[in-house]
Design goal:
The complex is a heterodimer. Chain A is an all-alpha fold. Chain A contains 8 helices and no strands. Chain A is globular. By secondary structure, chain B is mainly alpha-helical. Chain B is built from 8 helices and 2 strands, in the order ααααααββαα. A two-stranded antiparallel ribbon of chain B has the order 1-2. In chain B, a hairpin with a 2-residue loop joins strand 1 and strand 2. Classes of the chains: A mainly alpha, B mainly alpha.
Chain lengths: 186, 177
């Protein structure tokens, strides 16, 4: 089935805005930040980086725009941002681990925002869904969140988490089945 | 009880439907299916719950926008490769020229002087270190060089008088005979 990378609107595409920024329009960069910062912040939070979300998001954008010539458009701009953010987070963790401030990185660090924000969800059915998602394994939770909250394709998820498209699909469907079972049992 | 619909193709694009990134024709087709399938409708409801309850993280967009420096075009990788290639060709051409010049001058010195302390590097090149020569050796080298200068060369102008001189003898003898 045909899908588009961005919602079908009259808004300029990411590629249009990047071109405008290259041609000297500074506002185009701000529009790209406005468009992608919320999703990027959720992604960064989901990766377990709760205390310095603002800093990581800013560093990600600065690095991305500084290396814009290396962005060939093979992936969506958003996925490219996520890849940069993920590397930044790993670098920060390695550096922190060396100074023995923070414990080691493992799959469990990608806890996602489902764990801490239940109380902010007023709707009872939404709260039940979030509780169900919180019970997923770390890998299922990460893939499920990237697929639903961020709207990434299986290929984008696989590229991002260093897995295969097939594995991402299996994780997603297993997660969905687990959520349904949890909701049925409640 | 929620089940999984067997129409995998429809289930696969429910997230895209929720995000509004499905093409119009496909969107209509999926919505028709949803009207008749409770399982897919329930799955879509879960997806929408996840989306709608996604947390909003406060981010200072203005500050981030201000931190982005203006675009600066960098020289392309290919341009740099071409420049490096051109530099390598230039160095190579200079090297070959030096070798050709060295060969043509070295071959002349080598001829007839191999017996007087010359160090052969190549059949066409002979290097002479005069510091290593004794007085007798130096005298021999000088004599060799004198002989070398007397030898005919490929230069027609310098060859012509010698040839005419050589030919004059026999002709004169014949004429006199």
């Amino acid at each position: 089935m045909e899908v588009t990378a961005q919602p079908v609107t009259d808004e300029p595409t990411d590629a249009d805005l990047i071109r405008q920024w290259r041609n000297g329009d500074g506002r185009a960069a701000t529009r790209l930040v406005e468009r992608h910062a919320p999703g990027l912040a959720r992604f960064v939070t989901g990766e377990g980086e709760r205390d310095s979300v603002d800093e990581v998001v800013q560093d990600t954008f600065v690095r991305a725009f500084g290396a814009i010539d290396s962005f060939r458009g093979d992936s969506a701009f958003r996925t490219w941002l996520f890849t940069i953010a993920r590397r930044l987070i790993l670098d920060r963790r390695r550096s922190e681990r060396r100074s023995r401030v923070v414990s080691t990185i493992d799959e469990g660090d990608a806890v996602t925002t489902f764990d801490a924000l239940d109380t902010m969800v007023a709707d009872e059915s939404m709260l039940r869904v979030r509780r169900a998602v919180a019970r997923l394994s770390p890998k299922q939770k990460e893939v499920f969140t990237l697929r639903l909250e961020q709207g990434l394709s299986y290929k984008e998820i696989a590229d991002l988490v260093g897995s295969t498209e097939g594995a991402a699909r299996v994780h997603y469907h297993n997660a969905m089945r687990a959520v349904k079972e949890f909701l049925d049992d409640e | 009880m929620m089940n999984d619909c067997q129409n995998v193709e429809i289930r696969e694009v429910l997230p895209e439907l929720a995000h509004g990134t499905l093409a119009e024709v496909e969107r209509v087709r999926v919505q028709e299916h949803l009207g008749a399938c409770d399982d897919c409708a329930a799955e879509l409801a879960i997806i929408r719950s996840v989306l709608e309850s996604a947390p909003v993280i406060p981010i200072d967009v203005t500050r981030i926008g201000a931190a982005i420096p203006p675009y600066r075009r960098k020289s392309s990788g290919m341009k740099r490769v071409y420049m490096e290639l051109a530099a390598a060709c230039l160095i190579g051409a200079v090297g070959i020229s030096a070798l050709v010049i060295h060969n043509s001058s070295g071959a002349g010195v080598g001829q007839g002087s191999a017996s007087v302390g010359a160090t052969a590097v190549d059949p066409g090149i002979a290097l002479v270190n005069t510091n290593d020569l004794s007085d007798a050796g130096l005298a021999q080298l000088t004599k060799d060089l004198d002989n070398l200068q007397a030898m005919p060369t490929s230069d027609p102008e310098s060859v012509t008088p010698v040839v005419l001189e050589d030919l004059a003898g026999p002709l004169a003898v014949g004429d006199s005979a």
